[in-house]
Design brief:
Length: about 350
């Protein structure tokens, strides 16, 4: 563990505020602080039924947009039902993720060590090395669009991205299902804000994304005593993230209204949706990029169980410009290229040289 990471266990987010590209006034510990953190047991994050969008006609689309928009404007998180993805696929994905990490050695995985391609750091992240500022108790593997044969590229080579055969076709199924949700979610957000619902249709058709496999191994005594969290407190950098719900608890969401943490563990089969920095910027701060982190389970009896998640972060391509939507008042932010915006923020995790000038 580096000295920076040791300091990160007790660090505050504002220690790294120079990297932020949107307004973030909240102050919080990167890891759970037992002596100072408080929890909100009353706030209920809204559940939104996508069947209204898909089967409710114009009235259903409008109702869904209002419910989703209100939830995201309120806290930046919502829970999606009626999305059409078979829960059995998510259950199998949990098993496949464990299998991927069990059937490969660290040495084999290190051949795919993450490096920047465009805006996104893609590839394998060893445990405690997902960032340079906090020893996260998780191994991660980021696969962007280029890692999947989604567009029938004749030059696609699975071995360039995947250490074992057969995993790309399986996880491609989840990406394809989630990709079908991108435009409905974005159109609903735009409708809620009074904008043209199709403003981003072109930008988000076959857009880039980061599909991440997170394997949180069982927590040993030394790691439990270290004070490190499973994933540091952060805000996603993207437009929004799809996160299928998980079996082992740990996700915490910061309620900025009272600066208390909400423990979020919705039913299996649902999708957790949250907005990120891209969205906060282009909505002129209307929809926040909400802080969240992954802490140890509430009950120590779950420490010996791995936690598996597979979030999918939705981006625009690097050359696109991020501009405040029309009709949202005087823009607080100047237009900026996605690659400059993205890499400036994430350079706090990977080093200043990561940023594209």
């Amino acid at each position: 563990m580096s000295s920076n990471q040791e300091q990160g266990i007790t660090a505050l987010n504002q220690d790294f505020s120079r990297y932020d590209q949107v307004k973030k006034e909240q102050t919080y510990h990167l890891a759970e602080s037992a002596n100072e953190d408080k929890f909100d047991e009353d706030y209920e994050i809204k559940t939104c039924d996508l069947r209204q969008f898909f089967a409710g006609g114009e009235e259903g689309k409008q109702k869904f947009a209002q419910e989703l928009g209100a939830a995201l404007e309120g806290i930046g998180f919502a829970i999606l039902t009626g999305h059409g993805v078979d829960p059995k696929l998510y259950a199998e994905a949990r098993e496949k993720t464990c299998e991927l990490f069990a059937k490969t050695t660290r040495e084999e995985r290190m051949k795919y060590r993450a490096q920047r391609f465009g805006s996104v750091n893609q590839g394998y992240f060893p445990i405690k090395e997902t960032t340079i500022i906090h020893p996260d108790l998780v191994e991660g593997w980021v696969f962007c669009r280029r890692a999947f044969n989604l567009d029938d590229d004749p030059n696609y080579n699975e071995e360039h991205f995947w250490p074992l055969p057969g995993f790309e076709p399986f996880f491609r199924q989840i990406c394809s299902h989630h990709e079908r949700l991108i435009l409905p979610i974005m159109q609903s957000i735009l409708r809620y804000l009074g904008c043209d619902p199709h403003l981003y249709d072109r930008k988000l058709t076959r857009t880039n994304f980061g599909f991440r496999l997170n394997y949180y191994p069982p927590i040993g005594k030394d790691d439990a005593a270290s004070g490190a969290g499973r994933m540091l407190g952060h805000e996603d950098v993207d437009l929004f993230t799809f996160l299928p719900s998980q079996e082992v608890d740990g996700l915490q969401v910061l309620n900025r209204e009272n600066m208390k943490w909400i423990r979020l563990n919705p039913p299996l089969g649902t999708i957790i949706l949250n907005t990120g920095d891209y969205m906060q910027r282009i909505t002129n701060d209307r929809l926040p990029s909400t802080t969240h982190r992954v802490s140890k389970p509430v009950h120590a009896r779950l420490y010996d169980q791995p936690r598996v998640t597979f979030p999918m972060a939705i981006y625009v391509w690097e050359e696109e410009m991020l501009e405040v939507f029309p009709g949202l008042g005087e823009p607080k932010y100047e237009p900026i290229s996605a690659i400059k915006f993205h890499t400036k923020i994430t350079s706090k995790y990977y080093g200043d040289e990561y940023a594209v000038k």
